[in-house]
Amino acid sequence: MFRNKIDYCLNCVTKPCVKGCPLKNDIPLFINYSKEGDFLKAFSVLSETNVLPFICGSICLSLKLCENNCVRKLKGKSVEIGLLESIIGEQGLKKNYPLFEKKNDFNGKNVAVVGGGPAGLSCAAFLKKLGYGVTIYEKHNYLGGLISHGIPDFRLDSDLREKSFEKIINLGIEVKYNHELGKNIFLKNLKKKYDAVFLGFGANVSKILHIKGKNLKNVYGSNEFLESRVRLNLREKNVIVVGGGDTAIDMARVAKRFGGNVLIIYRGNEKEMKALKSVVSLAKKEEISFMFNTNIKQIISNENDYNAYLCNAKGYNFIYPCDYVFFAIGSKPDEINKKLGLKLDLNGYIKVDKRNMTSMRGVFAGGNVINEKNTVAHALASGRNSAYNIDLYLKNIDNKKH
Q: I need a labelling partner for 378 at 20 to 30 A (CA). Which of 54, 105, 218, 316 fits?
């Protein structure tokens, strides 16, 4: 089956799939090496631009990105690029292929990376490749950010996920866990200690509708709930998930596995949902219910009994008894951004120039914290590009000294 899938690629000279990839992976080249049976070379091609190929191939929105640009799609089905990338990525982990063919020797300069999510891990790996000493400061006792606490284990193999992170750390990167910006580490101190700083701690505060009942005990932001890794006993409990993106579907499927009777309500119709059709289909197969063209107006509690007041597009109001409500309608930046002394945009995201440098010289930022598109692929690309920009910045400083 794998043979048929790689042979299906036409190895286009114009490489339209690469144009649709945020990471600009050389897709035809890695597939061509796969055709030749040289999986080491295929893995190396992927790693030149993407240090988490297994993870990215497994969860990336490839149908909307590289596969959407595939020439094959014009007359049928596109090449399953995401699947092929995950297979080669898994092979690289199991065979312990090197992440980079060559790595520069230590150049005497050190960079701090704040945040061990996809942007931070990518930046750290490419900085290490370029010869820098790198220390990651992570607020949790584990790496991965939303890859770890936002992607359920039923969507991503946890062992291979951890091996993916280990491969990066084993490049010689130091990690300081349980270090949170603004609490036990501070930007001004990092700036004094390191030659440059990269901020990649995301923007994962859940948006919650300003409605009556939003602060009740059993009302959660999906991001915070998934990040907490709390397991609830939802057996025979009615659960509402508000939203229509991939996080809403993930939250609903997690709640279903906790035993809940789960209803997803979405303000638009099914075609307008941002979630992939394939994951919506999986949710339906798991007997998760959907209510479209519907909004939640308020949540009322009477001791331990909760009721959600819903309203559909036709103006009909009705009550739905519920025990828990989870909001998955998007995310926003953390309040810590306002305390860093950096310029922010109107929505509270950190402003950067074309080099990904913030308003503070020597401090760079990437990923969701700068309002980059909310995909793992975009975060990985942002972190990688920041690493190269940090390298140019520090080399330019050296040139001026000489």
A: 105
